[in-house]
From TrEMBL:
Mg(2+) 4 binds at D29, T44, D75. Residues 27-141 form the PurM-like N-terminal domain. It catalyses: thiamine phosphate + ATP = thiamine diphosphate + ADP. Belongs to the thiamine-monophosphate kinase family. ATP binds at Y105, G122, D123, R149, S219. It comes from Marininema halotolerans. The keyword Kinase applies. This is Thiamine-monophosphate kinase. Mg(2+) 2 binds at D46, D75. The gene is thiL.
Amino acid sequence: MEDEFQLIAKLLQHRPPINEEVEVDVGDDAAVYRPSKEMSQVITCDTMVEGVHFIEQTMDPVDTGWKGIASNVSDIIAMGGIPKHAVISLAVPQDWTEKKLIRLYQGLGEATQHYGVTILGGDTVRSMKGLMVSITLVGEVEQGTSLRRSSARPGDILFVTGFIGASAAGLHILLREDAKEWRARFPSLIQAHQRPCPQIEAGRLIHRLGERAAANDVSDGLGREAREIAEASGVRLVIDRDQVPLSKDTVTYGAECGVDPFQWAFDGGEDYQLLATCPAQEWKDFQGCALAKGMTFTQIGWVEDGEAGVDCIIEGHRSPLTYTGYNHFA
Ligand SMILES: Nc1ncnc2c1ncn2[C@@H]1O[C@H](COP(=O)(O)OP(=O)(O)O)[C@@H](O)[C@H]1O
Ligand SMILES: Cc1ncc(C[n+]2csc(CCOP(=O)(O)OP(=O)(O)O)c2C)c(N)n1
Ligand SMILES: [Mg+2]
Ligand SMILES: [Mg+2]
Ligand SMILES: [Mg+2]
């Protein structure tokens, strides 16, 4: 590799074109974009670190690029927003060749194209060990209407979008020494881990409920995300564990390898689905509306008055949730 400036020029060939909202593109000290009228700006930042979020065995660089954007898009969606512009910070170790970095950018390019996000800049520096990709994503939401973790109220329905736990099941396969044969049998689990696909439409549909809905994206496992909503709202969430939607492959693989698949759902993380609440009287229509748009929203519990926290019903027996979720410093 010659120098970082030539590298940046090569990498940028793999980003989708910018649009008319961009006043100053890559190439100056900072980028300038024009926010839409009547919209508030939403800003988030998520990082992928080699050895923590991915290793060579689990992710091709193209997947790491995709997932870096997806994890940020997921947070904008969980606020009810629409993702718009990204800046990308790279710390590159010696063993990451230009070829691998171009693959990373192809993944970033695919995901930004898919979600209508423009890459407006970034930063490129040396890392002494391991690649780090840190992405800051700006989105927008109608003023004063973002979805908060603090909006859950007693009597609400607690629900999730899609399936939960498939990403952690996929990671379990990818970390096996005999991964090859399992990968071929359970491609949906591998896909869930490597290519999560947060759905903007799901967030925007929940956003229609306005301040009566609370939402969190599932990055650290249901156990962790549920606690965050309970604490922010000052309510007790009750989850009926057997209602948590697990994909058929998640259940089959769990049975074959002797792992409780609910552990993947509650402790695993990286599903990038939404955990949300909805007023009970709206639930049936709301769920029907999601279905009509090709999305599955599944009730997994409800919200009660009481000490802030989460209870879980397992085979008819209710007790405080013991699953903890993912913890970086455990
Ligand atoms: N180093 C930091 N400095 C300031 N705020 C932070 C930092 N790390 C996380 N946060 C904030 O703490 C909150 C929780 O972060 P995090 O658990 O990463 O959220 P999420 O799981 O939705 O990505 C977010 O509002 C985030 O912006
Ligand atoms: C090699 C490897 N080991 C473990 C994991 C699991 N893992 C790493 S970070 C993480 C939690 C999600 O990442 P985080 O940075 O906490 O995202 P955020 O909650 O901020 O969106 C999980 C489940 C993984 N993806 N890859
Ligand atoms: Mg985060
Ligand atoms: Mg989040
Ligand atoms: Mg996290």
